[in-house]
Amino acid sequence: MAIRVLVVDDSRFFRRRVTEILAADPLIEVIGDAENGAQAIEQATRLKPDVITMDIEMPVMDGISAVRRIMARQPVPILMFSSLTTDGAQATLDALDAGAVDFLPKRFEDISRDRDEANRLLCQRVRAIARRGVATTRHAVNAVASGAARATRPALAPRPPVHASGSAHNGPIRIVAIGTSTGGPLALQEVLTRLPASFPVPVLLIQHMPSTFTPTFAQRLNNVCAINVKEAEDGEELRAGTAYLAPGGRQMMLDGRVAHPVLRVKDSEPNQTYKPSVDVTFASVARFFPRETLAVVLTGMGADGRSGADVLKRSGSIVWAQDEQSSVVYGMPAAVAEAGLADQILSLKDIGPSLVQRV
Known about the structure:
Elements: E1 3-8, H1 12-23, E2 28-34, H2 37-47, E3 51-55, H3 63-73, E4 78-82, H4 86-98, E5 102-105, H5 108-111, H6 115-130, E6 175-180, H7 184-192, E7 203-207, H8 214-224, E8 228-231, E9 242-245, E10 250-257, E11 260-267, H9 278-288, E12 293-297, H10 306-314, E13 318-322, H11 332-338, E14 344-346, H12 348-358
Parallel strand pairs: 1-2, 1-3, 3-4, 4-5, 6-7, 6-12, 7-9, 8-9, 12-13, 13-14
Antiparallel strand pairs: 10-11
């Protein structure tokens, strides 16, 4: 059965463009459109789409207000279209907080310079969020709306964990590293708000996000968390009780002396798909904190984090993965679990308290 999509935007041209792209995918059917938030609410109630694409700035009712009301009445996965500006970042994070599950740049050139690739990524994103049946939100972390379409692949039993020889799984933890993508902003907020100000080790955060968004996102997390949260800066020292968010569009690694590592923020290599990349950061951490790292892979598309988790496991460190039920998109954590790299598979609500207990 095709994924049924409602397209919402005040621009007739943009609605037509999105409709044409989605309609070219045999797995997607555009069942309607709306030009403002009020119409979106009415159409969502009447048509019961599997996914909604939503603009933020619209007349009559803006996209954020529409998301909030739709999620309260009849939850459905919502993909926001956002401008890659500071104001756009703030509005997009507000939309995610209201219940939207993901976002894409409204300028398709910002998705990819290759038009066909941008079209493919849009369709891929719609298919991915449709599989969850309903957005996972901070207000209903484990809720799955009844009646929403589900196209989730059959659950695969994770392979037995792979433990490195001499792995010190009961030893001290000196650093935590968390990687995530789709659904990550609220997942990170859920985890980090459970950590006390006295959390005894530094935390590295890798979230797939544009460079214009990460400063705003770091500040937002800092405002709601007891620990300090900041965007990582090149050359700074690691401090306990501080979380460092990898800047969008770049790579965050550790450098310096083994006994005294510092953060290194570098431009990405041309062949690196994810900027920042969980694999890059995890592999770097493994060199400096073998047997002393606790890595967590949260919700997200793709498999970024799997090879980095493998490096960490072989160094003797611990890897946790978010479970399928609480993930917005069970891609990244599934890749880790199915490779046998996860020491534990946890619900999102349990990860923060478990970090406090273990560390």
